Amino acid sequence: xxxxxxxxxxxxxxxxxxxxxxxxxxxxxxxxxxxxxxxxxxxxxxxxxxxxxxxxxxxxxxxxxxxxxxxxxxxxxxxxxxxxxxxxxxxxxxxxxxxxxxxxxxxxxxxxxxxxxxxxxxxxxxxxxxxxxxxxxxxxxxxxxxxxxxxxxxxxxxxxxxxxxxxxxxxxxxxxxxxxxxxxxxxxxxxxxxxxxxxxxxxxxxxxxxxxxxxxxxxxxxxxxxxxxxxxxxxxxxxxxxxxxxxxxxxxxxxxxxxxxxxxxxxxxxxxxxxxxxxxxxxxxxxxxxxxxxxxxxxxxxxxxxxxxxxxxxxxxxxxxxxxxxxxxxxxxxxxxxxxxxxxxxxxxxxxxxxxxxxxxxxxxxxxxxxxxxxxxxxxxxxxxxxxxxxxxxxxxxxxxxxxxxxxxxxxxxxxxxxxxxxxxxxxxxxxxxxxxxxxxxxxxxxxxxxxxxxxxxxxxxxxxxxxxxxxxxxxxxxxxxxxxxxxxxxxxxxxxxxxxxxxxxxxxxxxxxxxxxxxxxxxxxxxxxxxxxxxxxxxxxxxxxxxxxxxxxxxxxxxxxxxxxx
Length: 567
Ligand code: C2E
Ligand code: MG
Ligand code: MG
Known about the structure:
With about 575 residues, this protein is an alpha/beta fold. It folds into 3 domains: about 5-135, 2-Layer Sandwich (Beta-Lactamase), CATH 3.30.450; about 145-300, Alpha-Beta Plaits (2-Layer Sandwich); about 320-480 and about 545-560, TIM Barrel, CATH 3.20.20. It has helices spanning about 5-20, 30-40, 55-60, 105-135, 145-160, 175-180, 185-200, 225-235, 270-285, 295-315, 355-360, 365-385, 405-415, 435-450, 465-470, 495-510, 520-530, 545-555, 560-565; strands at about 45-50, 65-70, 75-85, 90-95, 165-170, 205-210, 215-220, 235-240, 245-250, 250-260, 290, 320-330, 335-345, 350, 390-395, 425-430, 455-460, 475-480, 515, 535. It has an 8-stranded mixed β-barrel, surrounded by 4 helices. The protein has a 5-stranded mixed sheet with strand order 6-7-5-10-11, with helices on both faces. The longest helix has about 30 residues, at about 105-135. It is elongated and about 120 Å long. The N and C termini lie far apart (about 115 Å). About 30% of the residues are buried. Bound molecules: ligand C2E and magnesium ion (2 copies). Ligand C2E binds near residues 365 and 538.
């Protein structure tokens, strides 16, 4: 080699080393430039790299072939270098020359060997980085995963770039039903098409990640928020190539518009916010896309507060049973009561809506319900022992109990511990919406019935009531929700009133007792009487009462309907 050739060679070698030193910075163009200059010095016409994941793959010829440079004249093989990387990846580099150029001498071959080995080492290291990246940051279907999302938030946060971006967390609504209706394969197509639309709406710089199943998170520029939210609210998504077959897809979603100047400390600031909003969205039936704001912030604080205080409050007996009488419409006689939970904290009464939804997020609600049943049984036992009059008392059970296979035994254990005759206890359960819940509900209603305990459908008519629910399960009582009873200024000849009338007729025909909830006025009571609904519960008679006040009402036995109507 001439002196000039050697100098350029060393110069290129230096550039090559500096370009490949740090695998996190990949200057592909720079490397290609160095290689083509090298080819010029050594009269190389073509360079080809083969990559095999293992020696076995090499043997069977299953690998990748990359052409690093080619001027179209490489017809003679000049040299070949093979290395096996520590990861067992096999790399082979072959150089070709033109038959018209001078062949490489031994010195040139030795110098090229050094460069090629360095190049192959660099490629294998790069491959390894890519494989690690794939395994750690992507899921099987090629979506970036939650770790990718956290990393992106971290990078953007540290660079001060989160402001004016929107983060989102969403769950495809009832996707299992879609899968069931159109089949899993089509379901996959729907999910792919739908997420593709969302990814497009997020814009070039947006990122959509999959947390698993049908749960996703993403971050994108805030100017695209409306477009993304419109898709989350729902649209028909095609799943055949003619786009003629479509299903409606929508989501429940939590959205956080990150304000300009947002002070970043850690990724969980963003992630917790979208998760909280998404959780609220799942609970709401009318608004399934919820934006994170200060109200939600307070809610989150309240949730934590409830969770933290719950165990201690239970031990301190701060959860009390308040009793609301159930009254015979015709005579005013108290024929039963519903036990409703109140949390008494330093003389302040906290209503159930402030803590039950939080306890229902896990199984704490079941502990509370059993506690309430215990309190009610203890009161009934005392009334019996003191020779007081006793009525049947209903206790609310959350749907969270449905999966408990030993529920009946748990209930009976409590009732029998206080030696309370079963006819004094009634269990209120709300309607269910899914097949699985329906099966569990049947098992529980049957079991309670066999144990001689009354069972009632609570809030009938409020959810998606099904006549099947009434037909197939052996209920004793139907509690008709207050939305079926007309308010005083409403026409009592409307559709709701007519439905009320017929629901009562039907229930009585099949032997169910009927109670109307939420009766607040004399006019509403008259409406019940006119439509032959026998029992009423509501503020017109009394709000849920502390146990002492309720005992006074029990001693009285009967409301004076005439006097009430004059108030
Ligand atoms: P629910 O079982 O349907 O109870 C009836 C609710 O209607 C009670 O609300 C009661 O105070 C209210 N109410 C009664 N009469 C009237 C009226 O004339 N007008 C109006 N506007 N409302 C009336 P409360 O006590 O706030 O309870 C709300 C819900 O919380 C209950 O609805 C029940 O689903 C749940 N809950 C209460 N205690 C428990 C419990 O111990 N366990 C479980 N799992 N849930 C409970
Ligand atoms: Mg109830
Ligand atoms: Mg109710």
